[in-house]
Amino acid sequence: MLSHRVDHFVESVIRDMTRLSLKHGAINLAQGFPDFPAPLELKRAAASAIMEDYNQYSITWGAKDLREEISRKAREYNHIEADPENEITVTCGSTEAMMASMLALINEGDEVVIFEPFYENYGPDSAVSGAVPRFVPLGEDNRIDEDALTCAFNKKTRVLILNTPNNPSGKVFTKDELKLIADLCAYHDVIAVTDEIYEYILYDDKKHISIGSLDEMKDRTITISGFSKTYSVTGWRIGYALAEKTLTSAIRKVHDFLTVGAPAPLQHACVTALRFPDSYYEELVRMYDGKRKLLYGALINAGFKCCMPEGAYYILADIPESAGMDDMAFAKYMVSEVGVAAVPGSSFYKSEAGKHKLRFTFSKRDETLMEAARRLEGLNI
Question: 92, 110, 272, 292: most buried by Cβ count inside 10 Å?
Fold first, then answer.
């Protein structure tokens, strides 16, 4: 007999679309990984760490030099003070950081507040940890519906999951919105678990604010980030969680038996990443801004309706009504007949709204995006 937990979710649709893309020779705008090289200096640092024999277990909760650099980065960029000895845990990607945090916090039947649209992992994370998810759809222009959010909190609420910049919508939560969330968390004694993996990828002068930097949230926030997106190393699986000492102790217990530790040589290489100059991040944004505009134009020209994302590297687009198909059917049609892979919108929604949307990533070479644009011109709908 199988666990009842796995009855509540399916295998990743995102990864399934990658498999279909390979099968049909399509351009993969479904899965959010770059098809261009990681920074040369970072790759050299990884090779050097291997040759210097950082090949055995690191300290379970992370190499000391990496935790110290994360602490400095968190203080300077996120305005969060995190003691590297007692308040930082290095994990196997931000995915594991989220799962370890949920398992450390949740008792069977606790409720978790999740904004919709949401990254597809959050539903399974809730199911595996034994939580009951309560989805709160964002209102017009991706703004928080204050009444809907307030109603989602009750005596069973244990955690609120916050993803900013948001995957898939590209929304960047404002300071006023974060203050509203913080007030509700404080009133109901709720922990905010934040996914901030796209924290450096921001457009149009948007600013990233970590809710954990707010005074009332310092001791009730688990701040999660990692190296995959900022440094184009999605296969390295190095992430981390920042939290006050008691929360960190619980996370570390789960992490220890979940994965033991993140890859030792890659941890040492990530120290080099955190020492990159400001110009690296400025160029990162310039690069992705160009790709954002390229894909947006291609989608508009092909008949999709979409908005420019404020952050991250995805565009959530409405399927043209003339297509006459739901998201799953249209995504498969796109792969097999158009040669472009996207993710069905229902992967990111509990409501029916997702059945009319697709998610595209622009984390690809300009040549890849231009070829995708050429293929989309032939979309016959």
Answer: 292
Assess contact for 69 and 41: CB atoms under 8 A. no
Nearest to 223 by CA among 44, 53, 75, 47: 75
Structure tokens at 4: 């009842």
Measure the N-to-C terminal CA separation of the chain; round to a whole number of Å.
Answer: 46
> Global pTM?
0.95
Residue entry with tokens 């640092």: 45
- The per-residue pLDDT for 274 is 98
Which string of DSSP letters, residue by residue, matches 306-323?
E---SBSSEEEEEPPGGG
- Helical ranges in the chain per DSSP H: 13-24, 40-51, 64-73, 93-105, 122-129, 146-152, 175-188, 245-258, 264-274, 278-301, 327-333, 366-376
Q: Which of 93, 129, 86 is nearest to 111 (CA)?
A: 129
How far apart CA 179 and CA 135 sit, in angstroms, is 19
- Are 117 and 348 contacting, i.e. CB atoms less than 8 angstroms apart? yes
Give percent of the chain above pLDDT 90: 89
Note the pLDDT of residue 54.
Answer: 96
Q: Where are the domains of the chain?
A: 4-38+279-376, 40-274
DSSP secondary structure string for all residues of 93-132: HHHHHHHHHHHHH--TT-EEEEEES--TTHHHHHHHHT-E
Query: 4-38+279-376: which CATH topology?
Result: Aspartate Aminotransferase, domain 1 (3.90.1150)
What 3-state DSSP class applies to 76?
Answer: helix
Domain 40-274 -> CATH class: alpha beta
Tokens of 324: 């006459």
Query: pLDDT (tens digit, 9 = 90+) per residue, 9-34?
Result: 667 777 888 898 889 899 999 999 99
Do 32 and 170 form a contact (C-beta atoms < 8 A)?
no
- Split at pLDDT 50, 70, 90, the class of 2 is confident
pLDDT in tens, 220-235: 999 999 999 999 999 9
DSSP 350: S
How far is 50 from 116, CA to CA, in rounded Å?
Answer: 42
